[in-house]
Write a structure and sequence with these properties.
268 residues, alpha/beta, eight-stranded mixed beta sheet, 14 strands, globular
């Protein structure tokens, strides 16, 4: 029997309008009525995840920023927070900016970026809460406010081919000292080493005394692969990236067509 469903949000639980449809909501409550716990494990910032769960009136564990932060809807402080190693933080930012791209820096309760009028940042900012603060220079802002040890994630929004070229330009040291992943084809992210959705799912299971074999994980992005690889049942959306589909036991319908709901009805 499955005891926990780990859900990605964008491209999975959220439809194309970045909302949870009534069909998916009904399925989530159906699963909970059967005694199954729901946990959102997302690249999203904590504010949006917690707000979504509170609107659904679901008290549960969740993972934000790809597992950099783990908490519950009823906790005043996170259960777990892991920031980026500060040693190569500015090397990362230099590589991004030297390639004419704009870094978006995520802290626990603050998100900021260069005031560059980057069209891709403008697009992604519509879906991020709290609002992204524009600063003259992210590097100067970090130094001036002593934030070197508080960065949880760095994101870059651009076309997939451009981001793949950027990924190749990061040094071997950075690739070994940080976790790099695509949450969406147009959003590339860097987190702390050994911080990913798999480690997040493992910790949430430990805190709830649930075996990984008793979990279902559903996702669509490359950053979902770590949790898909360790869950008892792994499910990819039909709209998932192709390399994600190669890592799962089952492929459901798209997020537009309530694939999460169809998976829950099939396996719970």
């Amino acid at each position: 029997m499955y005891k926990l469903i780990a859900l990605d949000m964008d491209g999975t639980t959220f439809n194309e309008e970045h909302k949870i449809s009534d069909v998916v909501k009904d399925a989530l409550f159906y699963a909970m009525e059967k005694g199954v716990k729901i946990a959102f494990i997302s690249g999203r910032e904590e504010f949006t995840i917690k707000q979504t769960l509170e609107e659904l009136k679901i008290d549960t564990y969740y993972g934000a920023l790809n597992g950099s932060l783990i908490s519950t809807t009823y906790s005043k402080v996170p259960k777990f927070v892991k920031s980026l190693n500060k040693e190569y933080l500015f090397d990362i930012l230099d590589t991004i900016e030297k390639n004419d791209l704009t870094p978006i820096v995520f802290l626990e309760n603050l998100i900021f970026t260069n005031d560059s009028n980057d069209e891709y940042v403008e697009i992604i900012s519509k879906f991020i809460n709290p609002k992204i603060i524009r600063v003259k220079s992210v590097k100067e802002y970090i130094l001036e406010n002593n934030l070197e040890e508080k960065v949880l994630k760095i994101g870059i929004c651009q076309e997939y081919d451009v981001l793949k070229i950027l990924e190749e330009k990061f040094s071997d040291t950075i690739k070994s000292e940080y976790t790099l992943a695509f949450s969406l084809p147009f959003f590339f992210e860097l987190m702390a080493k050994d911080t990913d959705k798999g480690s997040c799912l493992r910790e949430i299971c430990r805190l709830n005394d649930i075996e990984l074999s008793e979990t279902i994980a559903i996702g669509d992005g490359e950053n979902d692969i770590p949790m898909l690889n360790i869950s008892g049942l792994s499910i990819a959306m039909s709209n998932a990236m192709e390399n994600v589909k190669k890592n799962v036991d089952y492929i459901t319908d798209t997020n537009k067509n309530d694939g999460v709901a169809k998976s829950i009805r099939k396996f719970i």
